Amino acid sequence: MGKAQRIDMRIAAMALIVGMMLFLWMVDQAKAQPVGGVAEKKRPVVFLGNESLPPKNFMKDGRPTGIVIDLVEALAKRMHQPVEIRLMNWTEAQKLVLEGRADALLQIDPNPERLKAYNFSEPLLITEFTIFTSAQRFGVGSIRDLRGLKVGVEEKGLPILLLKKDPQVIV
User: Fold this and answer.
1) Considering the entire predicted model, what is its pTM?
2) Residues 163 and 6 sit within 8 Å (Cβ to Cβ)
3) Is residue 78 left, alpha or beta, with left meaning phi > 0 and alpha meaning psi from -120 to 50?
4) What does residue 79 show for φ and ψ, rounded to 5 degrees?
5) What crossing angle do the helices spanning 18-31 and 67-79 adopt, rounded to 10°?
6) What is the pLDDT of residue 84?
7) How far apart are CA 53 and CA 116, in angstroms?
8) Rounded to whole angstroms, how far apart are CA atoms 83 and 18?
9) Which part of the chain has CATH 3.40.190.10?
10) CA-CA distance, 45 to 107, in Å (whole number)?
């Protein structure tokens, strides 16, 4: 993988919607002003993530866990804001945020379609994608080296979008 592609992927990878979280926190703070001398309870910011993306997001003993979960919990403590983290089917998670039934997505990579639908923060955690080959195959260092080869990749996400940009790579 070329250096420019690696840098592009690093920039694009794993952006938590911190800006959105801060905006929601400010809106929630405005709503939580005392009414008749009684403060309302703060509504938690609801984060949704992919249920099977270890070590970033995954379920362990019935609880969300992973690197991204730790980061969100640390942010919540610093903001003194309750959060609710739910891991689920990724397509369903995106739908719920678009419908306004949740506030933010964990571990979402920007692409042209998503940039129209979501507000992205600066990257909070940088992720690299790796190409795995058999031990007998040498010389695969970039997407260009995959031309003419059949490549297995998850059906959704940044890696497939990058691979499909090269019509000579068989996905």
Assistant:
1) 0.60
2) no
3) alpha
4) -90, -10
5) 40
6) 95
7) 24
8) 13
9) 3-117
10) 16
Report how far apart, in Å, the C-alpha atoms of 100 and of each of 38, 50, 94 are.
Answer: 27, 18, 10
Multiple choice CATH, 3-117, 3.40.50.20, 3.40.640.10, 3.40.190.10, 3.30.565.10? 3.40.190.10
pLDDT of residue 21: 47
The C-alpha atoms of residue 83 and residue 99 are separated, in whole angstroms, by 19
* Average pLDDT along the chain, 171 residues, taken 10 residues at a time: 49 40 52 55 90 88 93 89 93 95 90 89 79 83 89 80 90 90
Nearest CA-CA partner of 153 in 141, 139, 167, 164: 164
Kind of pairing, strands 57-60 and 52-53? antiparallel
